[in-house]
Amino acid sequence: MPRFRVPEATIERLSIYLRSIRGLNETRILPSQELAELVGTSDAQVRRDLSYFGEFGVPGQGYRVGKLKEEISRILGVDSIWWIALVGVGNLGAALLAYPGFKRQGLRIKAAFDNDLSKIGKIWQGVRIQDVEKIPEVLSSQGIKMGVIATPVSAAQEVTDKLIEGGVKGILNFAPVRILIPEGVKLRNVDLSIELSALSYFLGNTGVSGEAKEILGTRQQTEQTKKDRE
Amino acid sequence: MPRFRVPEATIERLSIYLRSIRGLNETRILPSQELAELVGTSDAQVRRDLSYFGEFGVPGQGYRVGKLKEEISRILGVDSIWWIALVGVGNLGAALLAYPGFKRQGLRIKAAFDNDLSKIGKIWQGVRIQDVEKIPEVLSSQGIKMGVIATPVSAAQEVTDKLIEGGVKGILNFAPVRILIPEGVKLRNVDLSIELSALSYFLGNTGVSGEAKEILGTRQQTEQTKKDRE
DNA sequence: TAGATTGTTAATCGATTAACAATC
DNA sequence: TAGATTGTTAATCGATTAACAATC
Questions:
Q1: Range A184-209 burial, b when 16+ CB lie within 10 A, else e
Q2: Distance between CA atoms of residues A127 and B24, nearest Å
Q3: B-chain residues near A94 (CB < 8 A)
Q4: How many Å apart are B48 CA and D21 C1'?
Q5: Distance between CA B169 and CA B26 in Å, rounded?
Q6: Helix (H, G, I), strand (E, B), or coil: what is residue A103?
Q7: pLDDT tens by residue, A199-229
Q8: Which pLDDT value is given to residue B227?
Q9: What is the value of pTM for the model shown?
């Protein structure tokens, strides 16, 4: 359990640390400096992030990879299996059903829902698509606590309410709309056009066509320069 | 052009402001307070965000919706059309090709690439899929400056290098791996399993199965309580 | 003018970075 | 022990919030 309030950015980095050391030998001892290089941050940041949760390192040596994997997995809760409900099996939803990255983190889409009669009853990726109306009962009976929303904007709030009725405590929302949730439920949003708009901003107004196109200056920032690779 | 250094979070919020006022009457005058409520932030935050780029409001009144749309679109660069190259037309790539949210922001996938011979030459969503080997030449000749990577991890860096060779200045990466880019190129990453891992953390270790499952405490935070809706 | 809300300055809050004593 | 790196404290940096003079 954390000693102090943990920044959300720390949680995201923990996930990246885990991803980065997955392939390494369990017995290897990795200094914060090396882990930092792998993920593109500083050694101080790595130590600070880990120290929220305990003392995992060996002073003078570094962090044992096996121990690190174990501890981070435990902290994030990905050492156990998470059952997930997916709502909306359109193009994006179907892609999420097939997404191979989830399994590795103990994430399993166990129930899928849609309101399209031509889809209901079909089985995709081993998961049977059910009527959205059944969300509350299916989730309650299966104890599913996490939901993913991949519906159109128009259905997102309604579907959210059903997920919460079914006992969901965490929601990942892909619909580009603000959804409201009661206290005690955690929401994360992924909005693809916000991502691309942000890129658009950093590129300056150099898009094609359109009218007056002032260059907004060169604010491009770089994650890491190619030089660092050498 | 911005007066000071603009936080990345401000850019993301601008995009949300724009999304929120899209349906409103152009002549309506919206106080920062009301816009803040729409998007779930504070009035001070709204004014601060906008003030980086000029004085768009009318003291004593608020912000004219039409003016706001115009200015934010211009700031973000979504008043012109952005041509985008998509690399990797698997499940996720195909979903992105079909994604309806892009068009609204002036984002057009104009070229798609894959290395799968059975896909090359086919047309999906009106876009012909071409060989990844052709990325540099196609992008140069068409002047495409933005790329989306939806390939497996194993291909992500190679494909990045080709995009950059073709003159791309902004990349949205869905592959769950760190990719390296030269200075002057802007990268954003969307990692779906990081999103779900973060949810997992906030839910505490209440996933099913697995061994020792300590509850990490109740750190759940809420975007907005349901009460606010009333 | 009186009332309201902007744009901005100053204060606060929170996260990152630097530095170093403690530790293997 | 000498050398190296952790864990943490203090300093810095940056973003958010509060407050209010300027403005319509």
A1: ebbbbbbbbbbbbbbbbbbbbbbbbe
A2: 40
A3: 91, 95
A4: 16
A5: 33
A6: helix
A7: 999 998 666 643 322 222 222 333 444 434 4
A8: 39
A9: 0.90
